[in-house]
Amino acid sequence: MDSDFGIPRELSPLQQLRSQYQPELPPCLQGTTVRVELGDGTTVAEATDSHIMARAFPHTLGQPLAHFLRETAKVSDAHIITELPSVRVGIVFCGRQAPGGHNVIWGLYEALKVHNANSTLLGFLGGSEGLFAQKTLEITDDVLQTYKNQGGYDLLGRTKDQIRTTEQVNAALKACTDLKLDGLVIIGGVISNTDAAHLAEFFAEAKCSTKVVGVPVTTNGDLKNQFVEANVGFDTICKVNSQLISNACTDALSAEKYYYFIRLMGRKHSHVALECTLQSHPNMVILGEEVAASKLTIFDISKQICDAVQARAGQDKNHGVILIPEGIIESIPEVYALLKEIHGHLRQGVAADKISTQLSPWSSALFEFLPPFIKKQLLLHPESDDSAQLSQIETEKLLAYLVETEMNKRLKEGTYKGKKFNAICHFFGYQARGSLPSKFDCDYAYAMMTVKHWSQNASSTSTSIGRPAIHPAMVDLKGKAYDLLRQNAQKFLMEDLYRNPGPLQYDGPGADAKAVSLCVEDQDYMGRIKKLQEYLDQVRTIVKPGCSQDVLKAALSVMASVTDVLTTISSSSTVGGQQFA
Amino acid sequence: MDSDFGIPRELSPLQQLRSQYQPELPPCLQGTTVRVELGDGTTVAEATDSHIMARAFPHTLGQPLAHFLRETAKVSDAHIITELPSVRVGIVFCGRQAPGGHNVIWGLYEALKVHNANSTLLGFLGGSEGLFAQKTLEITDDVLQTYKNQGGYDLLGRTKDQIRTTEQVNAALKACTDLKLDGLVIIGGVISNTDAAHLAEFFAEAKCSTKVVGVPVTTNGDLKNQFVEANVGFDTICKVNSQLISNACTDALSAEKYYYFIRLMGRKHSHVALECTLQSHPNMVILGEEVAASKLTIFDISKQICDAVQARAGQDKNHGVILIPEGIIESIPEVYALLKEIHGHLRQGVAADKISTQLSPWSSALFEFLPPFIKKQLLLHPESDDSAQLSQIETEKLLAYLVETEMNKRLKEGTYKGKKFNAICHFFGYQARGSLPSKFDCDYAYAMMTVKHWSQNASSTSTSIGRPAIHPAMVDLKGKAYDLLRQNAQKFLMEDLYRNPGPLQYDGPGADAKAVSLCVEDQDYMGRIKKLQEYLDQVRTIVKPGCSQDVLKAALSVMASVTDVLTTISSSSTVGGQQFA
């Protein structure tokens, strides 16, 4: 099975050119000297979870944030490390492949070697299974040759996503001990980074000296927080999909007779769909977060699309492009309830063809109403994270079917006077995951490697039952990216302002383009934390022992109300944040 | 409906750069002087059809071929035209959009203006419907600004494909007369160029002075012959699809658990699938022409795939990528027979849900065996060219279903010992048609405009009933491109020699790549015709009156046998050529 891993690949001319590309490193990671400033210990995202988190992560919670500094930075208490011992590090791909994964390995390899030429990097073959079985390939420059800046995970492969059961974590511990690893790097998404956080705690508890590092590589873009602004792979996926969406827009505008219903891969949340909308301006997108927030039923959504089709027909427009994130199906309340019932029965061992007779009356009514192809897909076993098999459920076909039925009804009743409604359905997912990574992802992945231990500190929030897990970040309906969409939604819907970013380029216009949602969001969270600390320091300096009674009195009064206000805001934002949890 | 045609579009940075690109013209089309050599009158492709063709095209058949010459060419009887009168030309998009269509308009506009600034180019809005209704937009440099080198047909739009009925050809005649057109340019594929040929004859018969010109623009690549080596749009489509196929290959190799069944748009024949295979090296492709030639049943094809899956599993490979041309479904003998029966009933007005009871026993048995989703798709009304709605028939899902069933059976019986077979199905079509055109298509389309009247001379061959039509060219199973595939098929199947040409580039490696099937085929048909004429001229010079009896005797004897041999070959190739007609 692993016979093909790491073998040299035949590269096309473009791939050869890309393999020559040297990613850019940020100034703080250049050179052989490491300059680190250790900041405050981190807090948990939700104040109410702090005791659960403290219990789950007694060894690893609350460690200080490490800031890497550029050579010119003047920080008095920075640790300056010029000589590093040789280390042995293992690296493993977990979970779904994302463009840029290979560059994480290459970047780590170069970083290890530049600091100590005797350091060793071992790749585990075949994902977590290879970790458990201790199947390794030593990474060398020769091995990397035809994988630099290339897509896929085929250098090492991947199999299962999980490092979770007692058997699995023990096998991982044994592998790290047997192989004398100083570090274990896990490349993956939300699930794999949750596993990495727990594994780090488990290793610390077991007094294993291997440090566990999670690297956020996922096309879904849902593994982000104050410290992680983007995931490796998201930029490429959105560019490849936007190209195809734009092509469909141009096609729709040329033929003037089709509505394209395009479902996008991206798991539970709608980051990919939002970003692609901002890049290519299709007529409509329905975000899972909007559906959940407004508790829209499947009929509400279908009616919303029908009304849009009717409004456009009123302007003699009988074509359009509508984006459907794959996760939307779980955001629709009544479908979600149905899925939970089905999954419950499946887990109890009920055969799929017997389930329809055991549903609650409400779910049964919905189920019986659905067309056969969707019934079959809803009956599939859930994934390892308990979500439905989103990539297998053709929500775009279901919506196209409902819209067509309704438009035909309106046509018959005379309330709709436009042309016959025609839908073409597409699912864009697998054809983008293996893409050559964009320049952004090449650079970002290559530089990723020194972000250590972030996973077990920052973004973990508790689940109500079971062990704490990293929640996938949802699209922030109060955020700037969503706001940009809302401002333009009506124009996109009616005016066909289609924008074609074109195929992914490596030179010229667009080659250095960043994700729109990344550019509009507030970037400098850490900068603003620093600014706040400066204010606090200034107050401290002014109100030193010896200051006047008036100054002290004013300071006390002001700070009391500041504390009050912040306490109130903190607890209410916690409630708000749980709204869709 | 036409309110949006020709309005300026907002262009992305890459689109803006592309809009600045000036396509290259071949030397013979550069400058303001036109140099033409009129060659022999053309013959029909099939000797046996000559009387049918002569009857159908009394005015337009057998016209001389026009060769355009570069300035430096020394041809004694070349016509040299330095001044051209101002002309009025109409242009219309017919049939499915293909990347590069806009450049045909731009190239024609520039060519008309360079020869006479007073010439006028009128675009018909909304395809043939716009032609009949005389809805025009005068093409100007302003109008073209945001459409140069851009994809789609949205500058003028298109609606119906047909210019065929008496009413339609009369409306076209009236439009050309009313608008005082010297020329009418029809941009389209096989069907539209057949219509163009008949329209030219109809106009000639009616003594209408408008010359009709067909331009071969089709993504299918099936409108080719000795004079037309490629179609505008084919290069782009194959590059966009090859990128996505390669991404799926990389994905398959990374996950090692899926077989991708990818259906490709391309109508009846398998040119797109063949070219994409040569570009991206998937494990397997099944060409419609192979299926027809070997009379493979649906079960033969399914078994062929199953055996491949089993052989790969024997090497611990549980993944793969298989290409399925959309036209394959009509190449399978028993399915074709079923489709013909269904279409016959549909044409007689039988309701779709009643047809299954009226099928012949053999067709009925096949139909009942098929899964419901395919049944529904086979019952769709045929297209205007009598073929099935190929884009709507999910042949890839049918094959994946049959293969899965068979693999599960083999697994149960113990004859297959590999992992459980998993298929993921895709259809690549609509998402490529609207793409930004490749450099090749930009240049080719821009230069296309002076190929006049080819359509009604060369590639028309008769149909057995009804009017003569251009047959779409099929993949030549004796050609070099197919031979290249056969030589590599076993290696592609077993060794995962996936090749990723990457996203369509406009600069650097790959930007100037031509289609593999174009590069390996004999290119210089006209050059070889010229060479033959030189030989004949030499014989004529040697055997002039006054030559010796011996020379004359030898020449007569040799030429008698040459003529014999060529006559025999000609008639047998005609029979061979009709094999799949």
Automatic annotation (TrEMBL), chains A, B:
GO-annotated molecular function: 6-phosphofructokinase activity; ATP binding; diphosphate-fructose-6-phosphate 1-phosphotransferase activity; metal ion binding
Kinase is among the record's keywords: yes
Regulation: Allosterically activated by fructose 2,6-bisphosphate.
Pathway linked to the protein: Carbohydrate degradation; glycolysis; D-glyceraldehyde 3-phosphate and glycerone phosphate from D-glucose: step 3/4
Localization terms from the record: Cytoplasm
Gene3D superfamilies found in the cross-reference section: 3.40.50.450, Phosphofructokinase domain (3.40.50.460), Phosphofructokinase, domain 3 (1.10.10.480)
Residue ranges occupied by any Phosphofructokinase domain in the UniProt entry: 88-394
Keywords, ordered alphabetically: Allosteric enzyme, Cytoplasm, Glycolysis, Kinase, Magnesium, Metal-binding, Transferase
Single GO cellular component term: cytosol
Any Gene Ontology biological process: photosynthesis
PANTHER family: PYROPHOSPHATE--FRUCTOSE 6-PHOSPHATE 1-PHOSPHOTRANSFERASE, PYROPHOSPHATE--FRUCTOSE 6-PHOSPHATE 1-PHOSPHOTRANSFERASE SUBUNIT ALPHA 1
Annotated HAMAP family: Phosphofructokinase_II_Long (MF_01980)
Quaternary state and interactors: Tetramer of two alpha (regulatory) and two beta (catalytic) chains.
Family: Belongs to the phosphofructokinase type A (PFKA) family. PPi-dependent PFK group II subfamily. Clade 'Long' sub-subfamily.
Role description: Regulatory subunit of pyrophosphate--fructose 6-phosphate 1-phosphotransferase.
Protein name, per record: Pyrophosphate--fructose 6-phosphate 1-phosphotransferase subunit alpha
Natural source organism: Thlaspi arvense
Source species taxonomy: Eukaryota, Viridiplantae, Streptophyta, Embryophyta, Tracheophyta
